[in-house]
Amino acid sequence: MTFEEVMNNLEELGSEQTKKTLLRHGAQEPLFGVKVGDMKKLVKFVKKDRELTLALYDSGNTDAMYLAGLSVNPKTMTKQELQNWAKQAYWYMLTEYTVAGVAAESSSAPQLAREWLQSPDELIATCGWSTYANYISITPDEKLDLHEIAQLLEQVRTTIHAERNRVRYTMNTFVITVGAYCFPLLEAATEVANEIGKVHVDVGQTACKVPLASEYIHKVESMGRVGTKKKTCIC
């Protein structure tokens, strides 16, 4: 498919209802309002063409940018390209899912996560916490820097309630992810989850809720699934 053909397909798949929902969550024009499930029908046509995926992301259209993230091979993305993607991402669906998912499966994952999560820019910081969380969920424990992750848990424990809005959300998710996917730090994550308690995030005019980290980790532990890694974090 050409760039124009993909954009035409996305427009046909879009709906006003989905568009209104995305706008309510923070998206901006231009977008068509395509459900992720419908968008995935185009992945097989796009993933063979790396330049096409880059062009789709550069379009600034939320649907096209999300499709690019679903289609690109993360291993082919350079650190500079991912930094550019993070700068172009203008709302949390792109930073916390699209960019973070691709970055986590790239060869620059831990370096970018460290750089981003300390950023003074709220969206870049959310991208960093989400990238590191995704990286933990797919990486064997023996390849993780457990000392660094423990230090980040301590940072969450001492700063989360004073952090910026979406950063609080991604920090909370980070604690959940450590507890659910990193068995050596289950106890540490549980302690932090218990201490931070309920995390308050302004989710605007949406029905979204912030999960209670302690309950989530306990649920995963009771199912005997702590440490079971995911095959991919791109979805």
UniProtKB/TrEMBL annotation:
<dbReference type="Pfam" id="PF08713">
    <property type="entry name" value="DNA_alkylation"/>
</dbReference>
<dbReference type="InterPro" id="IPR014825">
    <property type="entry name" value="DNA_alkylation"/>
</dbReference>
<dbReference type="InterPro" id="IPR016024">
    <property type="entry name" value="ARM-type_fold"/>
</dbReference>
<protein>
    <submittedName>
        <fullName>DNA alkylation repair protein</fullName>
    </submittedName>
</protein>
